[in-house]
Amino acid sequence: MHIPDGYLSPLISVGAAVVTVPAWGMATKRVKTVLNNRTIPLLAIFSALSFTIMMFNVPVPGGTTAHGVGAGLIAIILGPWAAVIAVSVALVIQALFFGDGGVLAILINCFNMAVVIPFVAYGVYRLVAARAPLLGNRRVVAAAIGGYVGMTVSALFVGIELGIQPLLFTSASGVALYSPYGLSEAIPAMLVSHVFGASIVEGLIGALGVAYFQKRQPAYLASLKSVFASDDAVVGHASRRPLWQLVGGMVAASVAVIAILGLVLGGGNPARWFGADWSRVDWAAVASMLLVVALIFAVLVPLAHVVLPRSAKRVGAGLVALAVVAPLGLIAPGFAYGEGSVQDVKAAFGYVPQGLQELSGVFSAPLAGYDIPLPFFSRANPQLWHAGVGYEITGIIGMLLCLAAIALLTRVISGRQAAPVAGTGPAAA
Question: Does residue 426 have a pLDDT over 70?
């Protein structure tokens, strides 16, 4: 979903400012009216959560990988305009510090993931939920459908953006200057990989998130203004069917669908699950990485719960846990469609488009690939260091950057001292 530099003409990448910049401006104006000591921490936490979710790669049809965004959930809880800010901050930090998505492509990546997903997901959620009680199961289902549709529509936009490049920008000899994938390749590839993969993940994130808020902080499911005007928001009556049964059933059904689909696409061969070549995975290194992750988890998560203030224990420990287990997404072989290296493109098409030659190296992120350049670790076991330790550390750095960026941004927006990101009250529940 993150488009790198060189795959889109600068005219389209920068031209996305026509839509993205006004969206940022409107989001700033709308969110400013509800900024206070309780909304600021929640906005920061959601930005860090979105950053972390995007570190988890999942195998999808075609032997490629994709990821969730969490934008639909943020839109449902804080509203689509707040989601624009939270996800945009995460995306900008990913591009500038970790090289995830191009620097020139920041505007169009933010449009695809921070504008399209929140508004589509929120619109579908409101349509499906209608006037259902805030604690009803229908809200959970609506969140799942909203996240699923929002991610799918965003994937369609990316497919179109990549697919029109060969039509609009070619050399005198007729070869593509930027993305070599045409509409007939890009749209099906993006839709299939998300409809049967990442969109399911995004739907589950929405469902699980809403279920959590229904149980812990139901007031946040009301409109943002009414929630912070009064804690006595009307939440309605819960459905008689236990919520855990609904959520558990959705998760089980999704896992079953993904597992069966992966086998079908792999011709019934588990080693070709989702069309990927799982024989390329160094399972011995994976086992070592999982051991390292388990040890780090056993130390950092309890430590976070002890060190953090009472109001932030659950959320802080939860975010640390997500960052620590993020390397599980590195197990999936392959790379995201349209995000391959210059060598991958050359191998597939026999040439390197001019745009990739000139723009792919226009910016070098300090922590590119979520890797920390420590020679004494790299010499010992580069794979283990990167997957077992470096990914966690850079993930935590990214989350902290998101928290700090939101604190600074909200201070600028509100024109006053921003609250500490740890927060108090429901925001830290």
Answer: no
